[in-house]
Amino acid sequence: CGFGAFAEYVSVPENALALKPASMTFEEAATYPQAAVLALQNLRDKRQIEPGQKVLINGAGGGVGTFAVQIAKYFEAEVTGVDSTMKLDMVRSIGADHVIDYTQEDFTKSGHRYDLILDVVAYRSIFDYKRALSPKGIFVF
Fold first, then answer.
1. Are 115 and 47 within 8 A, CB to CB?
2. Average pLDDT for the chain
3. Of 48, 82, 107, 127, which is most buried, counting CB atoms within 10 Å of its CB?
4. Bigger pLDDT: 59 vs 33
5. CA–CA separation, 59 and 8 (whole Å)
6. Shortest CA distance to 81 belongs to which of 67, 64, 65, 63?
7. How far is it, in rounded angstroms, from Cα 40 to Cα 68?
């Protein structure tokens, strides 16, 4: 495609780089930019997240989801993170205002409405998500 993103060498501005922590493998470090960029594109670039919006992130404890929670908080959104029981404490610790354990509660039937829903796991029908959206809400997957 001509962009060279997977080239052996690349030239970038120095301020676009960060040192890899010694405790992290090169393989682990290589995954971070991809997950972060996906979260940023979905929240900021595609859907113009705004302060005060109620944002639900389905899959908040995964790679893209953890970045999405933090990015949404940076943009001053009220964040609800959805994931399994074992990930809820971590999702809270990275900034989620509310957490939902999908093994215990179906957020699409709770009556709560969200301005933006980001789904990074895609295991529901779009019609299920519609029930949880505010009248002008946006669904991103």
1. no
2. 91
3. 82
4. 59
5. 33
6. 65
7. 7
Backbone phi and psi for residue 137, each to the nearest 5 degrees, phi listed first: -70, 160
The whole-angstrom separation of Cα 132 and Cα 110 is 8
Task: Provide the residue type at 40 as one letter.
Answer: L
Is the pTM here over 0.85, yes or no?
no
Kindly state which CATH superfamily the domain 22-140 is placed in. Answer: NAD(P)-binding Rossmann-like Domain (3.40.50.720)
Widest pairwise Cα distance in the chain = 51
Residue 128 has phi, psi (to 5 degrees) of: -65, -45
With tokens 């957020």, the residue in question is: 107
Q: Which residue has the tokens 């354990």?
A: 101
Band of residue 15 on the pLDDT scale cut at 50, 70, 90? confident
